[in-house]
Amino acid sequence: MTAYELRKSALVTAASAPKREIQYPHKADGKPKYSSEIYGENVFTLKTMAKALPKPIFASFLKQRRGRQVLDKTTADSIAHAVRVWAMDRGATHYTHWFQPQTGTTAEKHDAFLSLVSNFTPGGEEVTPIDQFSGGQLLQSEPDASSFPSGGMRTTFEARGYTIWDTSSSMFVQQGPNGTAILYIPSVYISYNGDALDEKTVLLRSNDVLSRAATELVNLIEPESHVSHVYTTLGTEQEFFMVDRTMYSMRPDLKITGRTLVGQLPPRHQQLEDHYFGRIPSRVLSAISELELECLKLGIPIKTRHNEVAPGQFEVAPIFEEASVAVDHNLLTMDILHKVAHRHNLRVLFHEKPFKGINGSGKHCNWAIATDRGENLLDPTVRPETNFRFIIFLLAVLRALQEHAALLRVAISSSSNEHRLGAQEAPPGIISAFLGDQLNEVLNAIEEDRPLKNFSVPQFQSIKVGGTVLDVKVSALPHIARDLTDRNRTSPFAFTGNKFEFRAVGSKQSPSFPVTVLNCAVTAAVREITAELRAQTGSKPRPSDEDKLAVIRKYIKLTKDVRFEGDNYSEAWVQEAERRGLPNIKSAPEAFTYLIKEKHVNMLTKETAIFTESELRSRYHILNERYTKDVVIEAETLKTIIGQQILPAAFEYRKSLAETAASLKSVGVEAAPEVDTLNELTPLVTALQAEYRKLTDAVGSCVEHASDDSNAHAMAAYTDVVPLIASVRSAADALEAAVADKFWPLPKYTELLLTI
């Protein structure tokens, strides 16, 4: 069967294949269960643990979880026994320490509960099988630390590493093969020397230091609040594409790199703006419904699903949770999406830009700070102009951006996210904050010590800062609440009512590192403002409103340059940002260099102590090495596609044209159309061959001249190889438009985007 016949067969299969049916759980009376009745049924929650453990043991665990004591052997053994029985009752045969190495995904190694006990009798050795799980097995395991990215901290002869149970995240059971299940133990991952080799350890550290700093500041501003703990909340809007799995299997570029390296846009894609919030295709809706059911069982609160802007693009979004749990749940959601898509003969694509020319995918991280009393510190309330606590924490976030914007740019930098940033609703690499007209007016009025202005919206009503109502002038419709701010989809860091939306995070990356960096930067800013407020207060027991206003005015002025309300895509903003001194970092390799600049190193290693210098240096090397490897893999994949599929297809088409022309001439028929087409095709083939040879030479040089300087190697990949990948693609896409469809070896964009 030819490639063309395979493409057409795949189209028929996609259109006629039976749909997968999922039976939603029902009650004993036959009625469907409510979502709330399914929620968390496969999670070993604190409530479940409390029922399974003696009260003193559970109380001991709670003290450890709050950082008040070390987990002793008796408590660990009791928890291990209880969770084993609970998991095995749900079909679990194995357990795994589930962790987050610096690969952008998760890792797991399965061990069986089954053990063998030897008894020596007069008749010889007798082996008895038992199911066993000890406290020591629960607390830690030992993966090979030299087989994961370590940035030089581990070598092949230094292989020992440890995964350690993260007691702040609940254990859970996931379905395994053949009706069995697996117990998952959320864990951190460290080296033999105690260095963080994962994404979660540093996130947990950053949560702790931010909690201490923010708690001190809250209690200084409002001593009567008696706050003892502050935590960050996170909601991750996960965007992705879905394509038919048979079509996907015929695209080596998608399989190897996650994105199409060649391909022309179809005549119709997203121009009509009719896909966003449109009807979800039935096969996709079935897959997402199955995802939601799996997530419900695991206590993942998926709230929203909808079509995104581009054809074949979708989004799911959860309810906000504590940040470390939200990260776990986001990575689980991605993993489950892969599994359920496979069951529906679909393939999910998390690459930030799998299709050139249409919207890419992000992971919008909605971040806020809350107290243990349930108060959101970024809630402006009805009168933000008098809510000094809100304004001070708002300014702390702005100060963090102003001082460490380059670090946030590092946190979102990768070879894949580079294709997305700065176009088609993705924010650019210049990190700035959008607050909206009303909050800007609040800050400006405080700075200038004047009354607030009223906003006038002629077609509605007079709008005042502090919450408004819109009258849409239709008698049958109710008045609706108007938010304090509009939404700026071009802003990388936008305030959206009671939280900041970090829109620049890439769809396939773990949100852990971006949130860690944000936590660290905000911690440093909170400590700085706390010190300033104490100095302003002097010997008084607490700061007066005048003291708070003095500090607020100072930081309004200091952070003014990082606030921007306009079009972040405009060239005028690029020039204005440069005038303001905001970093405009053009590439990922350039961004990585900021991770080891003295200012940022001091903040991350000394001021907040989230990283050691060796951990930071290793991360720097991992980021650079990953970038280079990604680019080289793309280039090698593209070379293979061009050399083994596209050029041979063009040659075959040329041969067919030549033979047809010769055959027509032999019987005296004019062959000018065929000859003209052949003449138009030849320079396109020649151009592709020329770019293909340049790419081959550039990749060879990049690989051959790899140096100990990982950043220099990454920069060489960016300057020498990336442009040639683009030029080869342009030449191949021009050829796709000229070669007859029956000769083209790869599924086209029309088939990939519209066959679901």
Automatic annotation (TrEMBL):
Q: One of this protein's GO BP terms?
A: glutamine biosynthetic process
- Using the record's annotation, list all stretches that form the GS catalytic domain: 206-646
Tell me a Gene Ontology molecular-function term this record carries: glutamine synthetase activity
User: A Pfam family for this UniProt protein?
Assistant: GSIII_N
Q: Which InterPro entries match?
A: Gln-synt_C, Gln_synt_N, Gln_synth/guanido_kin_cat_dom, Gln_synth_cat_dom, GS_Type-3, GSIII_N
Q: Where is the GS beta-grasp domain?
A: 93-194
This chain belongs to which protein, by name?
Glutamine synthetase/guanido kinase
